[in-house]
Specification:
alpha/beta; Inosine-uridine Nucleoside N-ribohydrolase, Chain A; two-stranded antiparallel ribbon; about 40% helix; binds beta-D-ribofuranose; binds calcium ion
Amino acid sequence: MGHTRILIDTDPGVDDALAILMAHRQADVVGLTIAAGNVGLAHTTANALKLVETMGASTPVFAGCAGPLLARPPQDAAFVHGLDGFGDIGYTPSARRAEIEPAALAILRLAREHAGKLVIVTLAPLTNLALALRLDPELPSRVARLVVMGGAVTGRGNTSVAAEFNIGFDPEAASIVFSAWPQIELVDWELTMRHGIGFDTIARWCAADDPRARFFDAISRKTRAWSQARGRRHLMLADPLAMAVALQPELVTRAQEHHVEIALHGVARGATLVDWENRSGKAPNARIVSDVDQARFEALAASAFGTD
Ligand code: BDR
Ligand code: CA
């Protein structure tokens, strides 16, 4: 389908799952490269394979690094996504297997095969992409766009005071990517908080007579309950928001270009430090998405379940 060619680096994860479903409805997905993050690599890989099976797709799945590049793995996000990352519904594992090629090498090969056309969307800690960049610093020159879900641009973190999960899980990897990539389209946690989706809307999507909707309904129940128990009125769908920006850049209504670097030490470890006032004189390396058209975002997300 579609013409946009997308490679998704992901750690599924409930919100990753919705983003992956959206991408398969709207674009050509050339591969899923898998990171550890929300839960361990064995689960995130099994979840990706199950999702591909549920969609009846043939997208190759490439397993990546089992943990951060340097640091000890911090706390995962099983308390949000379930111990297996997919809501602990006890699904029958897919008979499919991951490819033999490791994720970082698959990123490099696919970027060459689709040179100038590939959109990379990262929905996970940046471990695989950092490793690929270390192997081949020319990688950005072959990639059309890099959309990153990560960061908390004014320091309102969701995993520590200042850090967002994907960056905070592997700050060294994030630092490698932000130091080397000339222009990152950044969809951060604070934008996600401004663009949650109402639980009633999600329930309507989940009621569709469609195997993808039934699967998402099942795997998202725990996360929705956890979120509602915290008094939230909306579900925060970070990865679908990043995917929406990747699929339909015109739904961005406001964006700002600034230099962003990653804090590696102290209480701010894993924070995205934005040079809002251009004090460093460093060229912008990020286009920070500050607003999107909510109606278009919701329509795109709904399309994951065949309702467009
Ligand atoms: C990010 O962390 C993960 O838990 C989600 O899947 C998303 O990628 C949000 O901070
Ligand atoms: Ca994710």
